[in-house]
UniProtKB/TrEMBL annotation:
Assigned keywords, A-Z: Membrane, Transmembrane, Transmembrane helix
Membrane found in the keyword field: yes
Domain of life: Bacteria
Residues covered by the Oxidoreductase molybdopterin-binding domain: 87-243
Name assigned to this protein: Molybdopterin-binding oxidoreductase
Transmembrane segments: 12-30
Record-linked SUPFAM superfamilies: Oxidoreductase molybdopterin-binding domain
InterPro entries from the UniProt entry: OxRdtase_Mopterin-bd_dom, OxRdtase_Mopterin-bd_sf
Amino acid sequence: MLAEARRRSRRAFIGLGLAGLAGLGGWNWLSSQPNESGIPRPLRKVLDANGRLSSAYFKETRLAPEFARSRARTPRVNGKVGLDQALDPAAWRLQVQGYGSGKVQEFTLADVQALPKIQMTTELKCIEGWSVVVHWAGARLSDFLARYPLATRSGQPADPLNPPADLAPYVGMRTPDGAYYVGLDMHSALHPQTLLCYEMNGQPLTPAHGAPLRLVTPLKYGIKHLKRIGTIAFADTRPKDYWAELGYDWDAGH
């Protein structure tokens, strides 16, 4: 029995050693590959494949589940990039660059609040694995772009049900200091649950949670829910995205 145990131990040791060498070889090969958007190209290809799958699964009619408002809780702050500057709510302005024109229009929070108020209680999912139900209130981004048709070259409203031929394919958003930034495909931006949000759980947003205006898009992970929107711009190619540059997939859908 002792001899058999020793024989099996030697076999296991050899097997583990070979597995370790294979893993080390694989890691050396992976780390020697050229980088693409901040990570080795093979990893980027896998993430891009995940993004294509998520994009194919996306539909305007597919809605994130909604919950009873009584289940709403305050989420973790979980990220302060782009929020270092002191906030002066009275001086804050949303700057939107028109697609193809380069002209910038400024909007106050009152301009956004004048649009139809949408309320929803959805699950905020973090890429780290935790989630929390939150009650949000704000204006649909689609309503904003219908009232202020800045996402088309012709000035036609961005109707999600009948999108104009010259509608921008992408939209990018940044914090006022430019430190945090996200990109969305236009289909996601015009989704009926994508909000320019100014209230959370029945109260105005706090500075730590993105006051005075943040993005909420519940079919995406929280890394896309940009806090304290400063600028919005439209693009023909995928805009830069903070976490995609650090190795996450650009689409970030679930």
